[in-house]
Design a protein that fits this description.
alpha/beta; Immunoglobulin-like; TIM Barrel; 2 domains; eight-stranded parallel beta barrel; 29% strand
């Protein structure tokens, strides 16, 4: 059966670039259908596709076993350093509710070997929040130095055992050692040693099969050398590769180049060395003429992260990355909290006490509400040539499940017609409105008997049609 649920959240007006205090809040209501004890439904296959500008091909699998869309969770959310910035036991509940409602499918959380007892408790509460979100979790060993590689990895292994065995956090499924290692003084042989030490410790503890090793977290700096080392020395211990990608909002071609070159590097590896690719951090940056905190300002002077353009470019990145076969993209980051004494305002959920949500929150929610972990990214062919402002990506899941996400790069609304979906099937049409309030709307439409559907995507917006009905 379906239950009707209305979610009401606040989207702050954008006018004060100096901080994250909203001047006013506009209320946006989103009503969605959610499944309640719904039986498994096998959807009909498309056997007689009609003509359309675009065709989704479930048989053309680009990447199987998607891990999902998500974000970084700040492990210090419940620590004293964040309490000093306004997070209280009372208002943090609102942050938790909004974070869970974003429906992140995969989450990354830093573990620090130098954490205080207060920060360790906060880290473990953050893992609990990630699990409540329904997400799988990557625990990243934040940074060195590494004077005692074997001892430090044993301590890390002990914490992972505590999380999984003692605290019952089955969602902890992946680890990464050393954030952005290609920009540090950590040598490649030492990096390999850390992974091999941890591999042995987790095997001894009996949980290595439970945890994947996602190696890399590479910046563009020295990435060719590091990818070569991973491919020639560590393929037996690494289960996947990861990178971080940031770009300036006024230089989208760099974003396209960056994500494409990573795909090309891995594709050129010997078949035995190729692994699934993750983006474990990504985000958009702006201008900081007066030293404003990251991610800086948009051209009109407002905080970049509050703009529809910022959200739109995040959506563009997600579409492009899945077209290239990346299995996960994680936004930096989900909610406001303090990593250190500095300030940054990348988060999809703004600072307390309002915990207001930004346009990128809804743009992210479109993806997490349209596709499920374990699905495959699949090919979408067609278009009208080089001047086409539309960019599409497709997904297929079990029992005939399917989704198509369409991005409109143009400055005017456009129509998308696509075939290859299950015929005669009700689907959800979700639209993130980059031309308006930066909100998300949804309604039910039905495909034709020839597997077709036609819908409108507003200017600088993204839309999805999906057979997925999100769980509560």
């Amino acid at each position: 059966m379906l239950a009707r649920v209305t979610i009401c959240v606040a989207l702050a007006a954008c006018s004060k670039p100096a901080d994250e205090t909203p001047d006013a809040a506009a209320t946006i209501d989103a009503t969605v259908d959610v499944a309640v004890d719904a039986p498994v439904v096998v959807l009909p296959a498309c056997t007689t596709p009609g003509s359309a500008t675009y065709t989704m091909d479930p048989g053309h699998v680009i990447a199987p076993d998607l891990v999902g869309f998500g974000a970084q969770y700040n492990a210090n959310a419940y620590a004293a350093i964040s309490a000093a910035a306004g997070i209280t036991p009372q208002n943090v509940i609102e942050m938790e509710d909004k974070t869970i409602a974003m429906r992140p499918q995969h989450v990354r959380v830093f573990w620090s070997s130098t954490a205080t007892p207060d920060q360790v408790e906060s880290f473990e509460r953050t893992i609990t929040l990630a699990e409540r979100s329904g997400a799988s979790v990557n625990v990243t060993y934040w940074h060195g130095p590494y004077p005692d590689p074997a001892g430090q990895m044993t301590a890390f292994s002990n914490e992972l055992v505590r999380l999984i065995h003692d605290l019952g956090h089955d969602a902890v499924r992946e680890i990464t050692i050393q954030n952005e290692v290609s920009s540090t003084l950590v040598t490649q042989p030492l990096y390999e040693q850390l992974y091999r030490n941890l591999d042995q410790d987790l095997r001894t503890a009996g949980i290595r099969d439970h945890i994947k090793f996602v190696c890399g977290d590479l910046l563009r700096t020295n990435q060719a050398s590091w990818f070569d080392y991973l491919a020639t020395h560590m393929t037996d211990v690494c289960d996947a590769y990861s990178v971080h990608i940031y770009w300036n909002y006024f230089d989208v071609p760099y974003m396209v180049t960056r994500v494409t070159e990573v795909h090309d590097i891995v594709a050129a590896m010997p078949a035995s060395a190729r692994k699934p690719i993750y983006v474990t951090e990504f985000g958009v940056r702006g201008n900081s003429p007066n030293g404003e905190a990251d991610p800086g300002l948009y051209s009109d002077g407002q905080l970049l992260e509050r703009t529809n353009e910022n959200a739109f470019q995040h959506a563009w990145f997600n579409v492009l990355a899945t077209r290239l076969g990346f299995v996960s993209t994680l936004k930096w980051d989900a909610f406001y909290a303090k990593y250190d004494q500095g300030s940054q305002f990348y988060s999809a959920i703004g600072a307390p006490p309002e915990w207001f949500v930004k346009p990128v929150y809804y743009a992210t929610q479109l993806f997490t509400s349209s596709v499920a972990p374990g699905w495959s990214s699949v090919g979408v062919t067609g278009g009208t040539g080089a001047a086409d402002t539309r960019l599409l990506t497709g997904f297929s899941g079990p029992n005939g499940a399917a989704a198509v996400v369409a991005l409109n790069k143009g400055r005017a609304a456009t129509t998308v017609d696509v075939t290859g979906l299950p015929p005669g099937t009700p689907v959800q049409l979700l639209v993130w409105h980059g031309e308006g309030a930066g909100n998300l709307t949804t309604r039910t439409v039905t495909t034709t008997d020839q597997c077709q559907i036609t819908f409108t995507v507003p200017a600088r917006s993204v839309a999805a049609v999906t057979t997925l009905v999100p769980s509560p």
